[in-house]
């Protein structure tokens, strides 16, 4: 059973914008959700997290003020609006779900379900 499917990745120029989407199953969409990214040769890094009812959002310092997460409850979809993109934002982006409730929203180990990832490349 596929729980999370990302889309919307691609190539953007520095300073540009992209919007990523993560379509979730009905079950996983009820969970706390997060975005992570992984560049080649690097660890998977936290990007942002949003609580299951959308009342709290958390962002990594590296993306704060540039990226915005939102939930569309009607479509069971999580979005990541990325603006003012930088070459260092280049990575595979993953959405994840924490249905047991995360203690540390920034830790990958807090999430039970993961999408397959979508590639984002930002040219300078």
Q: Span between N and C termini?
A: 39 Å
Q: Which term fits the overall shape?
A: globular
Q: Which regions are unreliable across 5 or more consecutive residues at pLDDT < 50? A: none
Count of individual beta strands: 11
Number of helices: 1
Strand content: over 45%
Largest sheet: 7 strands, mixed
Radius of gyration: 13 Å
Helix amount, in percent?
under 10%
How does the helix and strand content classify structurally? mainly beta
Q: What order do the SSEs take from the amino end to the carboxyl end, as H and E?
A: EEEHEEEEEEEE
**Mean pLDDT over the residues:** 95
Short descriptors:
single chain; 124 residues; mainly beta; 7-stranded mixed sheet; 4-stranded antiparallel sheet; 1 helix; 3% helix; globular
Structural overview:
- This protein is mainly beta and 124 residues long.
- It contains 1 helix and 11 strands; from the N terminus they run βββαββββββββ.
- It has one helix spanning 26-29, and strands at 4-7, 10-13, 18-24, 32-38, 44-50, 57-59, 67-72, 77-82, 91-98, 113-114, 118-123.
- The protein is globular.
- The protein starts with a strand and ends with a strand.
- The model has no long low-confidence stretch (mean pLDDT 95).
Summarize this entry quickly.
It contains 1 helix and 11 strands. Strands 2, 4, 5, 6, 9, 10 and 11 form a 7-stranded mixed sheet that branches. Strands 1-3-8-7 form a 4-stranded antiparallel sheet.
